[in-house]
Amino acid sequence: MSATLKIDFHTHSEGSYDGKEPVELMLDHIEDEDIELDGFAVTDHDEIEQSLEAEELAENKNTLVIPGVEVSTADGHLLAIGVRERPEEQKPFMETVKEIREMGGAAVVPHPFQKTRHGVSKRKINDIDAVEAFNAWLFTGFQNRRAKKFAENHDYPKVAGSDAHSLGMIGRAYTEIEINKEKEQITSQDVVEAIREGETTMNGVRAPIYRAAYHYFKASIRKIAYYSSKFLEKINEELYRYNRPLRELKNRGLGTS
At which of 168, 187, 207 does a domain end? Predict the structure, then answer.
């Protein structure tokens, strides 16, 4: 007997710097609301604690949680689906793909080619387990069409993800996977293998333009704030180092008085 599951492979919790939802709330939302999902992956930016917590919370529930991470590689973002360890950040893209596979996961490239969202360029993708060919947050359908065409030209499996950063977006895009098991017996490893074998069908709708625009605006402000804080930290470090001789002289003076 086979089962078809609807899974959102790309969501963010409060574990992401740009997320805000506790995983317990995300899980309850899927269980209680009529959004017709059978499972989801929590893929926080370079963090895995919340994803593992969600998997544990779901043990006695009807929703399958697939642990994962959205890894910041040296060449852009990469989804690690089905891993229980956090891959090392800022390694070359293909090295990170290899690491994810060694961990037993599936490497899925999200929102590819879109530089403003840390999408990986075509020339960096020599091999991949799947391409996120539908992302609900993309401002227009153009980038989704590019990703879909790239996946089809290279015979890569295609998946869809909501890229949800809030409850209302969860399940807005999802992937249907078919597995030759009864639904109650399916594990996250079964899902990983189904991705690799290409047993996937995409479904979903894009976020409203006004919400996508607001999302990009917030991301731009957040990025400016982040690099501004890093710059100020560097200035403070330089000032501290510059003033060190003065502090030493002052301390000597205080010590002889």
Answer: 207
